[in-house]
Write a structure and sequence with these properties.
inorganic pyrophosphatase (n-terminal core), Diaminopimelate Epimerase, Chain A, domain 1, 2 domains, five-stranded parallel beta sheet, five-stranded mixed beta sheet, 11 helices, about 40% helix, globular, binds manganese (II) ion
């Protein structure tokens, strides 16, 4: 498959060739695609260029240690390094603070492009995941880049995570092609799938709470507010809270759903999801916006939450 982006692919490959040190970063509040594309790219660069030094930088997210771990890098190292940021729509979302100190920066992302923050930006919403883009990069590298069992496993984990187990509408025939090619490397796919499905007892309790307490309107809009009292009682990381977002969409009558969580400073973060109607524009009005059917947003108080709920509900009554 060729998506007509040969020029940018060749530019990325030639920048990688040039640098002895490559630092790879991804977004905050990591998910399997963020870590999978980051660690997968790092691993495949290490085997493709054994003499280069490759780092993965960002906050640790222990629930994804099964994909791969982070490293620490001296600030000074950045000045001669190529920094590649994967799966991250805007520079405020980057995990790890020194990316801009890099000698050269590259963005590889499948979110709606709202911020071309790097020197070289490859963004394409037609990919299901950043991990799928990394596979594409390898496939178009004229054998300069090589995969192995572990890098294939990381990319597969990212694809399975971002497509909701090949469920969401951005799952294309190319997605299945890539998954099939990755499986040829012989990693233990059922174990990856199991890790993606596993939840801790704490997360199971949150899921039960959400299903018990979610408000479902006749229009097909569902929403819930998780306040600090609940979140602190359950002592959940934000990554753990993220894992329960898809569950509300399993309810057949729900068309659009919003999960609001209170931050420590009493503002709110929202996760908006939809089966069909585009929620991106509403998210963008509230300092968010990632994908057409799946976006984060912010609300400064309860009044803004109500506004978001009204706007989402209006989408369903049009
Ligand atoms: Mn992603």
């Amino acid at each position: 498959m060729n998506k007509g982006n040969e020029a940018i692919i060749q530019q990325i490959l030639s920048e990688i060739e040039k640098y002895q040190t490559v630092i790879i970063q991804r977004h905050r509040d990591a998910d399997p695609d963020a870590i999978g594309s980051q660690v997968g790219l790092a691993q495949l660069l290490r085997i493709s260029y054994p003499h280069k030094t490759i780092y993965t930088v960002g906050e640790e997210e222990p629930i994804f240690d099964w994909i791969g771990k982070m490293q620490s890098v001296e600030e000074l190292t950045y000045s001669n390094a190529l920094v590649i940021v994967v799966d991250t729509p805007s520079c405020e979302r980057i995990s790890g603070s020194h990316y801009f100190l890099g000698a050269q920066t590259i963005k590889i992302d499948h979110h709606v492009n709202m911020d071309s923050f790097a020197d070289l930006n490859w963004t394409d919403e037609s990919f299901s995941s950043a991990s799928e883009m990394i596979y594409y990069l390898v496939a178009h590298s004229k054998n300069h880049l090589k995969l192995d069992k572990n890098s294939a496993r990381c990319l597969y984990a990212g694809i399975v995570g971002d497509t909701g187990r090949f469920l969401y509408d951005d799952t294309s025939s190319y997605t299945f092609f890539v998954a099939s090619k990755l499986l040829e490397y012989g990693f233990d796919a059922p174990t990856v799938n199991r890790f993606e499905e596993d939840m801790s007892p704490k997360v199971a309790k949150l899921m039960a709470y959400v299903l018990q307490n979610v408000t479902i309107l006749d229009s097909g809009l569902a929403y819930i507010i998780l306040n600090q009292q609940i979140l602190q009682k359950m002592t959940l990381s934000s990554g753990e809270v993220d894992t329960i977002i898809p569950v509300v969409g399993k309810i057949a009558t729900v068309k659009i759903w919003a999960i609001f969580r209170e931050n420590e400073n009493h503002t709110y973060h929202a996760n908006l999801r939809s089966k069909k109607m585009v929620v991106y524009d509403i998210a963008k009005k509230h300092h968010g916006g990632d994908h057409p059917l799946s976006s984060g947003a912010d609300a400064k108080n309860k009044a803004e939450i109500e506004q978001i709920i009204e706007e989402l509900n209006a989408l369903l009554s049009d």
